[in-house]
Specification:
The protein contains 19 helices and 32 strands. By secondary structure, it is an alpha+beta fold. Among the domains are: 269 residues, Beta-galactosidase, Chain A, domain 5 (Distorted Sandwich); 74 residues, Sandwich (Maltose phosphorylase, domain 3). The chain has a nine-stranded antiparallel sheet. A hairpin with a 2-residue loop joins strand 27 and strand 28. Helix 10 crosses helix 11. The chain is globular and about 90 Å long. The two termini are 31 Å apart.
Length: 759
């Protein structure tokens, strides 16, 4: 745990520039608008360690998979988010000398991510000899005009003499991804144009050997300033504009850079792309800075009206939930159904792919409650549209049906770790569960009957082929898998995987009875196939220990040296950064919820005794080194009335990145797990469930909190839930009256209802 920012309800702010913490600082001050985003690196020159990352939604490259030895079925390429052309670059000069924020005398430093407005602010004073110049910088990517990046400088001469200030503004294609094979670069400049006060570049991703799309990026920069433009040198990979001017003592001048960014994802050809870029540039140029900023801030304000979770009594908890909500909405707000909730969003490039099973497991329930149903349906359709890729993935393993990828951009698996790629097949179950979750929450079976059933049938065919029948036990089994606990590989009969396989088959069998006859016919599910699925449901094997009263994580888990995680020396945590892989695999330590993930999905399927026995056994063995882990444990702990444990896990999920719990936030934020803090409050502390179409709450308030409040959407209604230490109030903000369950009792919600908060 390491905290480098001040605790503030609406701000992520620091007054220190520490080189060893620079990357951490950059990750946590990332901004985005769903279309594009960037880390909080400096526009200006900084010669120390930094990760300058700018990322565009849907733009990627297939880097050739390099493996040590032969394995049939291995993906041909590792799909990665690539660092975009650096269009934010602005180098500074004072009296002709370049400013280096790593080496120059910098004082009064401040960096502030204003989460309410979506603006990143910086300020500092540069001292060169007798000259002192103050810079105040505001940066945003507009949520009102998605193609717009804007950075605004206010420059104040604090010296007793005039000082010449220069701005060297660039669009620079000389960029790298840190993990690229052999330091390869991905961008080829097609065209550069520049005038004295502006310029443009069109660049394309280099050719690849895998037939995946190449992407074209168009960028046009404009500058609004009192500083004078001058001719700039022409270089191979950059478009440059230079502005200079003299500031009298105590004089202030402004410099603004606007960049319009378009991609070939939205235009059919180069001519259309250029025309679109020019039109957008014209639109943006016609507005003042204040107008552009006001429109951006207004959209963020509207988002917060619905999404904000207010907490009184714990500023750290308040900052944590708002930070996570801000980064989630900066990554994905549902406007573009071609995109998904990337594991790092626009904050880093550590993980490949545009989506993991995290979306279905943790993103779907979040967006169900905080966005229109169409947003979640878009997430489901994303998988439906990639069914062909899922068929391909299964075929690569010689299996029937569809295997949805662990990591993908287009439906085809593009991860480069075998244990993750083709052993961690439980993600198929989460794809099915998301359909069920959407249908259960909305009450709308249209998607299920028209498109979801195609996905369910394809997944069921995969499970039916992937199981094998044990003659000895007369039961079906699944061997050679990795469960959610990635600290065990190639195990037999992972309870969670077996459970989801059986459940998916059950759900598909039930759903097939609901669809139209013509639809059933189109799926070509035979009577023999249905009978086979039912037989698997009836005779699936599950490891269990009667003495402990637990579902056993896999066949051999109990043969391990079962010592609690508390016995690990503090200087060996996290274990993934201190132990060999062999040591980890042999240990009993669990990376994230595994058995408990299954219990979380189906809370009402298990008795209180079952939930308690499994939680009490597995949680002490869990090291929570996956960002997904704390939320599940917080919700289950709340369900079991382990309130201290629930609050502990909430703090961990809410401040995972802000406090760098797992010592890996330098690589970027854990975007998909950020839903966990919201889920921990709403499903955990407030006890929200949907049972038989009815919304249910059973709230408690953490002892440290005097009050918390949130909104949810549910079947055309907007509800506000307010919980303090004594009383819970549920208010119907809009929509028709409905019956809800509050603390185990049915009540009719017409305007507001109140009940005692659980002690």
């Amino acid at each position: 745990m390491k905290r480098i920012f001040e605790v503030d309800p609406w701000h992520v702010v620091s007054h220190e520039l520490v080189p060893t913490d620079k990357r951490l600082q950059e990750s946590m001050t990332s901004i985005g608008n769903g279309y594009m985003g960037m880390r909080g690196m400096f526009e200006e020159h900084y010669s120390n360690d930094t990760l300058k990352g700018i990322y565009i939604g849907g733009v990627w490259y297939p880097d050739k998979t390099r493996v040590g030895w032969w394995k049939n079925g291995y993906p041909d390429y590792f799909g990665k988010v690539i660092n975009a052309v650096n269009f934010v670059k602005v180098n500074l000069t004072i009296d002709g000398d370049q400013v280096d924020l790593a080496k120059d005398d910098i004082s009064d430093f401040m960096i502030d991510l204003d989460m309410h407005t979506g603006v990143l602010r910086r300020s500092f004073i540069v001292t060169k000899g007798e000259k002192r110049v103050q810079f105040q910088i505001d940066r945003f990517v507009s949520v009102a005009q998605k193609e717009l990046f804007d950075v605004h400088y206010s420059v104040h001469n604090l010296s007793d003499e005039p000082v010449q200030v220069g701005f060297i503004s660039q669009i620079d294609a000389d960029v790298f991804n840190e993990d690229a094979n052999y330091d390869e670069q991905f961008w080829q400049v097609l065209d550069k144009r520049h005038a004295v006060t502006g310029g443009s570049m069109v660049a394309e991703t280099k050719p690849n050997d895998f037939g995946t799309p190449r992407f074209t990026l168009g960028m046009q920069m404009m500058h609004l300033t009192d500083f004078r433009g001058s001719n700039a040198p022409d270089t191979e990979k950059a478009v440059t504009n230079i502005f200079r001017g003299t500031l009298a003592p105590d004089e202030t001048k402004n410099f603004e850079k606007r960049v319009v960014v378009v991609t070939s994802r939205d235009y059919p050809d180069m001519a259309a792309l250029r025309a679109g870029m020019a039109k957008l540039a014209e639109t943006v140029h016609a507005q003042t800075y204040d107008e552009l900023l006001k429109a951006h801030v207004a959209v963020w304000a509207k988002r917060w009206e619905l999404a904000d979770v207010a907490i009184e009594g714990d500023d750290a908890a308040q900052q944590g939930i708002r930070f996570n909500l801000f980064q989630l909405f900066s990554t994905y707000y549902g406007e573009d159904k071609r995109l998904n909730l990337g594991p790092k969003g626009f904050t880093g490039e550590k993980y490949g792919g545009a989506t993991y099973w995290d979306t279905e497991a943790f993103g779907v329930p979040f967006y169900l409650s905080l966005a229109k149903p169409k947003v979640t349906e878009n997430l489901l359709e994303y998988r439906y549209n990639q069914l062909d890729g899922a068929f391909h993935n299964a075929k690569m393993q010689g299996l029937d049906g569809a295997l949805f990828p662990m990591v993908t951009f287009n439906g085809i698996e593009c991860h480069n770790e075998w244990e993750i790629t083709f052993e961690e097949i439980h993600r198929n179950g989460s794809i099915a569960y998301a359909i069920y979750n959407y249908t259960r929450y909305t009450g709308d079976e249209t998607y299920l009957k028209e498109k979801g059933i195609d996905v369910l049938t394809a997944i069921s065919r995969f499970w039916a082929d992937r199981v094998h029948f044990s003659e000895r036990k007369q039961q079906y089994m699944i061997h050679g898998v990795t469960g959610p606990n990635e600290y065990e590989n190639n195990v037999n009969n992972n309870w969670y995987t077996n459970f989801l396989a059986r459940w998916t088959l059950q759900y598909t069998l039930a759903s097939l009875k609901k669809v139209a006859a013509t639809k059933r016919d189109s799926l070509k599910v035979s009577a023999d196939e249905l009978a086979k699925w039912q037989d698997i449901v009836d005779r699936m094997y599950f490891p269990h220990d009667d003495d402990l009263g637990i579902f056993v994580q896999n066949d051999t888990f109990l043969d391990k040296d079962l010592k609690p995680a508390s016995s690990i020396p503090a200087d060996q945590r996290p274990i993934n950064q201190h132990w060999s892989w062999d040591h980890i695999l042999r240990s009993p330590y669990i990376k994230q919820a595994d058995v408990l993930q299954g219990i979380y999905y189906f809370m009402d399927h298990f008795t209180p005794e079952q939930k308690k026995a499994n939680f009490d056994f597995y949680e002490p063995l869990t090291v929570h080194e996956s960002s997904l882990s704390p939320a599940v444990h917080a919700i289950l702990a709340a369900d079991l009335h382990y309130e201290e444990k629930a609050v502990e896990m909430y703090q961990r999920t809410a401040r995972l990145d802000l406090d760098n719990y797992n010592n890996d936030t330098v690589d970027g934020l854990h975007i998909t797990s950020m839903t966990g803090s919201w889920l921990a409050i709403v499903q955990g502390f407030a006890g929200m469930r949907v049972r038989d179409g009815k919304l249910s709450f059973a709230p408690f308030a953490p002892k440290e909190w005097s009050h918390y409040q949130f909104h949810i959407n549910f079947r055309g209604r907007l509800l506000k839930v307010d919980v303090d230490q004594k009383q819970t109030t549920v208010e119907l903000v809009s929509g028709d009256a409905l019956t809800i369950e509050l603390n185990g009792e049915d009540v009719i919600l017409k305007d507001k209802v109140m009940a005692d908060t659980k002690a």
